[in-house]
Amino acid sequence: EENSSLVDELSAWDKKHFLHPTSPIQQQQDLGPAFIFTEGKGVYLHDLLGKKVIDGMSSLWNVNIGHGREELGLIASDQMTKLAFTSNFATFSNEPAIRLAKKLSDISPGNLQATFFTSGGSEANDTAYKLARHYWMLKGQNNRKKIISRTKSYHGVAIGSTSATGLKPFRDFTNSLAPDFLHVDNFSSQALRDLIEKEGPETIAAFIAEPVQGAGGVHIAPENYFKEVKEICEEYGVLFITDEVITGFGRTGKYFGIEHYGVTPDLMCFAKGVTSGYAQLGGVMLSSDIYQAFTEMSKGTLLHGYTYSGHPVACAVALKNIEIIESEHLIANANQLGNELLKGLQNVQNKCGIVGEVRGLGLMGAVEIVKNKSSQERYTNPVAPLIVSAAAKNGLICRSVVFDGQDTLVFAPPLSINKEELYSLVQILTESILSIE
Ligand code: PLP
């Protein structure tokens, strides 16, 4: 209570001066911030009023090692004190960036060899599209410029990554997007083949997909989807890009999500879990073939680079984060506790009258809300957002997905979660759904 006048003051400034990312503006103006977070420890977040909640989303699917890890603060402080920043343009370099690029080549699938660093996932995606197109230019196939993505995909908010994003509301937010982006039915490899045939394979640069779709509602591809898709890409000479921004760094119970499907990408985008959110970092990895084309065929300058590409502090933080993921066996934990999460969600399904399908892979999970379990009929007005509010009051942060007529709750707790914490997540969820139905 001693903080309540501070909360009032900050709430007023929040409404007046802070334009929130991806936010319901009217609701934010009416209600102000739901939480002003001040501290985190493990899977828990604390706010200015002293409320404690489980971070059932790892914030934005990214705080993989959990909150409040002092080691990351120390490493950032060391690096910042020694050398906070230097250019990596041209032939300048720095030790954390070099070591991280080497480490990524060791842990990534297939023959991914070299990394181009960005500050986040949207930039990683835009970089992937530009590098894929430039690769085809180097190969003398200037017409290969179209990028194909899936209808329920989310790839970020730069102009390129918004254009690739399949979820229509994100594209409709602005009224002129990049040309040469095409969308294809979410789960059908045949639809991809048909689209490539229709457009002409010689016009297609790349196909991009999330191994498990996150923001679109935690959708897991049918069993043979990625094998078929990869074969189709090879058949038509189309580059295959995986967007591992959410699924990378252990989220699905393997290092990278695509490893569940026994295929390897030509390019791979990552961000989020690479630093567990302790610093801003993303990137694109290139296969040895593509990297070789760049290093051997490029005559001029690679005219694509962000000021913060290969930021020493972000890279040092990433290295320490990866060290923790490995030394604390967090990927094995995600795999094991992922099974518990799915079982837990199945229990919720049994106990609650309005829960339809549940799904999950590793520590990504989803619960469909339905009006009628047997017909799977949905409510006219989505109910998941009400459950999210109830859960927040009861001590659990989760997210609703209502795109495409969905009425879905999604979960992605830190990979460091233990059984007890997982049970209390499931318990609070059950209570919150029962309080609404
Ligand atoms: N790709 C995927 C699969 C994502 O989930 C996101 C963010 O949620 C992005 C790209 C964009 O990343 P960022 O928000 O770091 O720009």
List keywords for this structure.
437 residues; alpha/beta; Aspartate Aminotransferase, domain 2; seven-stranded mixed β-sheet; four-stranded mixed β-sheet; 17 strands
Structural write-up:
One of its GO terms (molecular function) is transaminase activity. Pfam families: Aminotran_3 (PF00202). Belongs to the class-III pyridoxal-phosphate-dependent aminotransferase family. This is Aspartate aminotransferase family protein. With 437 residues, the chain is an alpha/beta fold. It has 2 domains: 140 residues, Aspartate Aminotransferase, domain 1, CATH 3.90.1150; 258 residues, Type I PLP-dependent aspartate aminotransferase-like (Major domain) (Aspartate Aminotransferase, domain 2, 3-Layer(aba) Sandwich). It has 15 helices and 17 strands. The chain has a 7-stranded mixed β-sheet, with helices on both faces. Strands 1-2-3-15 form a 4-stranded mixed β-sheet. Strands 13-14-17-16 form a 4-stranded antiparallel β-sheet, with helices on one face. Helix 4 runs antiparallel to helix 12. It is globular and about 65 Å long.
